[in-house]
Amino acid sequence: MSSRSGPPSAFPGPRSGDPATACTPALLQPLAVLRKRRRFMLAANIVTLVVVGAGMAALVAPGGISLVDGLLLICALAITPWNSIGLWNAAVGLWLLHGRRNGMEAAAPFLSPPVPEGEVTARTAILLTVRNEDPSRALARLKAVKADLDATGNGAAFDFHVLSDTSRPEIAAVEEALVSEWRAEEGAGRIFYRRRAHNTDFKAGNIRAFCEAAGSRTEFMLPLDADSLMGARTILSMVRIMAAFPRIGILQSLVVGLPSQSAFGRIFQFGMRHGMRCYTLGASWWAGDCGPFWGHNALIRIVPFRDACALPHLPGAPPLGGPILSHDQVEAALMRAAGYEVRVLPVESESFEENPPAATDFVGRDLRWCRGNLQYLRLLAQPGFAAGLLPMSRFQLVWAILMFVTVPAHPLLVALLPFAAAEAGADYPAGLAMALYAGMMAMALAPKLAGVADVALTAGGIARYGGGVRFLWSVAVEFVFSFLLGAITAMAVTLEMGRLLVGRAGSGWRAQARDGHGVHWRDAARAFWPQTVFGVAVLAGLVAVAPVLVLWAAPVLAGYVLAIPFTVLTADPRLGRWCVRTGLCAVPEEFAPSEVQRRLAAGGTPLLKAA
């Protein structure tokens, strides 16, 4: 298969499809309904921002607004929108699940009435994209997916493609040998391997090369990452939905974490499990036809994707110029501009991934996402591009930018605490300050609190996590973990943005660490010494000025001070084994593995067993 030879000669705008459908939902929901929901969300978030702003203004008003006061107000206003939309998404999602009849169908109308089960005839390509990954590990997952599909009697409708961008010859040789062995065992008719000589346009270019060579024989494709795993029941359900609703261009599944042997990985994915469930459902309720695309574990209609979702090269040099790194949300915007819906299946199913096993790996991934999302600034500035997008799609690209642009407000706010304490007079409204602090903390935790409430309100929900005591301990541990990790990540992103401003940031993508591994104290110190120095300096300032505030500041300050021991401890294999043995932060699949997990285990990948 050949890849596109290079970037287009001119910067194209989105290509619209049928004008009658380009700006209209695909008969799944009336546009008036979505507009009403979006107006509600806009109003709710504006009111929240005004309340926080008014509270902060009242807090800093006594004695006049100083420079420190003004900066605190700006930081609070910068932090609030991201937390506010999380609060309202989670609240709506929880209401849909437990406060409204047929709430799921209100957010995902393609689920009602259920699409009838039956023989699947639409041809689908399962794509495994790899670059310098462990071939045995990645192929074991693809084999498990194939075995699960074949067992349903619908396997003949699926082909399996290993799309390699591997640059290391020794790894490429193993890839080819393992695929050849697999083809010899199960037949060559539905198993394919292709390796590109050049990593043109990274993963997006790899998939585009497949689309350009696929022709019209294959209707759908399902990209998987090297750590992805999907069960046949979920895949078949998604194919049936796409076949029944021909104007859905992308159907994204809700991806959850697989059981992990790493303490960091299992605690992180335990929190993500709860933070994403209500949040995604609530977001689907108002985003509707302009949903997100996360680049993998999603079913895609090939022809419109091929014809409308080609990514241009951005002007200038990397990291902000050149190929678009965070390609998925741009492709979703282009798909919607072409008249096809982008929908999320907002229910937990057999759609899995693995999360980074250590804080160093997690932060590295976050910084890659940061560079990729900030490219949207240059993308939206290109003449004619943004004008062809739907307003909701433009909002989502801007929102992806704000996800990182506002992050420096977190460490700046912490840095200002000693100065604010030194300026506080006898008339300082301490009660208001504590109320605002507690409110903003609760708002930041709202998606996870909603997820925990959902588990508690669902019959048998807590039992799926190993019982009440284990679940509550896991929730408490994860809340502490999230505050510590949040501080580490905030400083790392802030420093990366500084490097971007002076032209010293990295670029491109590297193979990710997938398996648990320890982190040496030296490596943790090399990665996170700035966090530690910053935290100790702020702590010293608070001790000197207002020691009583140290306890109040601990949740936002501890992550900086403890960054190095936190990284070493959460990556320690001994702690990981203890967590597995006790079932701390276990997910339901650790107690009741899905069928595709069992097939993966039968192929040699052991299942984790919680106590």
Low-confidence stretches: 1-10, 17-26
User: Which structural class do you get from the secondary structure elements?
Assistant: alpha/beta
Going across the biggest sheet, name each strand in turn. 3-2-1-4-7-6-8-5
Count of beta strands: 8
The helicity comes to 55-70%
Arithmetic mean pLDDT: 90
In DSSP terms, counting alpha (H) and pi (I) runs of 4 or more, how many helices? 22
The Rg value, from CA coordinates, equals: 24 Å
Beta-strand percent range: 5-15%
Overall outline: globular
**SSE order, as H and E?**
HHHEHEHEHEEHEHEHHEHHHHHHHHHHHH
Major beta sheet summary: 8 strands, mixed
State the separation between the terminal residues, measured CA to CA.
Answer: 48 Å
Any overview of this molecule?
This protein has 611 residues and is an alpha/beta fold. Helices cover 58% and strands 9% of the residues. It has 22 helices and eight strands. The chain has an eight-stranded mixed beta sheet, sandwiched between helices. α16 packs across α18. It is globular, with a radius of gyration of 24 Å.
